[in-house]
Write a structure and sequence with these properties.
The protein is of the alpha+beta class. Helices cover 42% and strands 17% of the residues. Among the domains are: 136 residues, no CATH class; 112 residues, no CATH class; 197 residues, no CATH class; 123 residues, no CATH class; 69 residues, Helix Hairpins.
Amino acid sequence: MRPPVPVPTLSRRAKLVIGAIAVLLVLFTVVGTLTNVYVDYLWFDETGFTEVFWTELQTRAMLFAVAGVATGGLTALAMYLAYRFRPAFRPMSLEQQNLERYRQSLEPRRGLVLTAIAVVLGLFAGFTAQASWETWLSFRNSTDFGRVDPQFGVDVSFFVFDYPFYRLLLGFGFAIAILALIGSLLTHYVFGGLRLQTPGQKLTAAARVQLSVLVGVFVALKSVAYWLDRYGLVYSNRGGEFTGASYTDVNALLVSKTILVWVAGVCAVAFFANIVVRNFLLPAMALVLLLVTSLVIGVAYPAIVQQFVVKPSANEKEAPYIDRAIESTREAYDLSDIDYVEFAQETTGDQVDPETALAQVRQETETIQNARLLDPNVLSDTFTARQQIRNVYGFPEKLDIDRYELPDPETGEMETRDYVVAVRELNSADLSENQASWINRHTVYTHGNGFVAAPANEVVSVREGGVPDFTTRDLPTRGNIEVEQSRVYYGELIQDQGQDVYSVVGATEGSAPGEFDRPEGSSDEGQIKNTYDGEGGVSIGSFFRQLTFAIHYRERNFLLSSAVNDASKVLYVRDPRERVEKAAPFLEVDGDPYPAVIDGRITWMLDGYTTSDAYPYAEQRQLGEAAADALTGTGTTALPDETFNYIRNSVKATVDAYDGTITLYAWDEEDPVLRTFMKAFPGVIEPRSDMSDELISHVRYPEDLFKVQRDVLTRYHVDDPQDFYNSNDRWQVPDDPTRGGQAEAQPPYYILAQRPGENEATFQLTSALNAFNRQNLSSFISASSDPETYGELQVLRLPANTPFKGPQQVQQSFNTDDDVARDLNLFRSADSKPVFGNLLTLPIGTDGLLYVEPLYVEGTGANSFPLLRKVLVNYGDRVGYADTLGEALDQVFGDGAGESATDGGGDEDPAPTTPAPPPPPAPDGGPAPAPGIDAAVSELNSALDRLADAQRSGDFAAQGQALADLQRAVEAYQQAGGGGG
């Protein structure tokens, strides 16, 4: 017998060094973790959401402790019992001799080893379990849906709230059983209870009993799993074209699962009986029976039924189950109550009856006069050029649309109009080098200032530059929307490289440089300072708080700078979307917050969704993918790409731009998921009745929800199961035609328009839908944002046999029009480029669709911005292309049609054709030469040169004038016969 190999030992000094390093690492980790938790708590305390903080923390801690103790403790207990009942004497064999060295190494440290295994396994299990805190809270506070599952006769809440928790418990049960079994096997093997290569008995009695019990527990859990699998059939994808239990699932697999429950139960009893019988033959036979049964009736039998019974006539066999899927999917995505309108059933597609069309246009004054010419997705640079004021300010990449009821400047009567709106925010990422010091970045440049709005259907004048008509603007803010508190301490741009930028505010004068508030007068040097006096922010008046934030942000200036004193506060987590997500972690927040002026204060408005991935029979989708369009990531935030099959716009949230106050309102008070979380977090969400009328007047139907719903509706608008199975009458979200051929979904658009059957215009979110794999239009969907009809979905169905143009085809008809194509070639130069705005689809009357699209021109210089130059209109097979919407309508419908529309250029008496500029005088002072191609080309070149000079100098006014000159030169060129026109 070989002597055991001695275990190497560490010197005393090495042990001390390693111990000191370990203590320091643990200390730094603990201090850092506790600091982060404390800073989080201070934020929740400041915002009034400590209920969320404590409930989430306690729930995570409870799950961590229970799962950690259960997993680590039971595994360690199993290993201890295996060691405790080890054989006192082991047969001498080569196998046992080789194991002796390990036994001698483990014996003196068995307590430490066992504790380490328990702790490591417990930590892994605890960290895994604590992430499921929402599952536990949902189970504990579950609310009935009031809708019974058609297969099992239980309330839908069982599947949404209970079933996921039972699966979680079962998963941990399997994990504990497997870990305990593995630990016991290893312990028995090392200490001689299990002898694989030793002649004679392979297992001791104690090992046989323990292993039999553990395997029996595992098989018993498998029996429970088979029972839960029965309910899991409501999520089956066997049907292929639909989600939920199919014919095979109900008539073959459901019976098989029930039988397997009993077979697994018998198998578990056989293993437990082995404690007394002392013969592995019985449990082995039971285990073989379970395996054979699961293969035959759990796999083979359903496959035979699917192949030979269902597949030959699937459309008939699956019909009742498709019915379930259609009904449940519509319910899960809130599509059960849609107003379907048969639209344009008597027309012949693109063929237009001029008299009928003109009559409808003249009747649709509500829609046409509000046709939007300003595209919020294009005009950010224009707002920046005209309203930035200072480089520290900025506007988001995508502006927003909202509506306001304001007095008409001419008649004084109250009217509702939609506006392109934006907040002049602090743009932390664009601070110059001298502005980016810690003092400037965090104590001087702390906030934005101002609210900017322009009517969405107007510009000052296409012929005078094509800029928006800013009716609310400048600093201090002035205009028709009254803003009493215009400072913006919380906004979308107060971050750098995706990280929140904190500000230290409130320091008394004399000890701090003061916060830059706004420029003073017209001077570039003068400035007005401000000291924050709002309710927002965490006080850091004490040394302990200052030390806490110095550690958290790794910034010593919290301790050393004179800008931090007893009156100071720290503002952090300042993005409105991040604030709502933090205050309500059980919500998914829409990717496009928008500002509104409520009671004279700038208020960020957001939409919160409750979601679930466990609604029975409903089709599952990826949230981020379903809510994506051509603008996602370039102006709107992408939602997380997680699986879901139930969604409700359950919460409307507001964030005050000055003090950061977060308020959550229960918008859909009947939503069972929301009611469940309201039980878990009492007092966090306010009732809908607390919303003021002014606040409700600015509520919008959310974009991400609408995108999800239109995507689902492309398939689930079909009622007949066989049509659904055969993909008859399937729709498709069109690609955005303004994105240069990129396959990205066209965004939905907010418009103020009159729905068919209604008497006045309402604010709504709209989208066109094409036929599947075709470019022809099939339907038009709109969601009302009007307080009285909020959430009502209307779908205009177009006749399937009539080829209405879809967005791509309309865009193609624009691009190939002779006049448009000629101008596009001129606009595409070294100094400028054309930019198409949003292509709006406007239903007109009972059978017409009017397309309106603005065309902008933008220079290619560093400080260029787009200006509206033309308006394109399509109706049927006719295209209008002019300076104003009214002129374009006249081209399509005949003289007089444009009188019913607001002139996009604001000209009182626009001439049908802009006259060419006067010809230059003759060099010798004689009579002027007749205008011709050469003169027109010369004027074009001169206008382009002036535009380039203006762009290089950054003179925005000169750029606007140069673009106007360029437009006149283009028209003179056309009149002279240029381009073959």
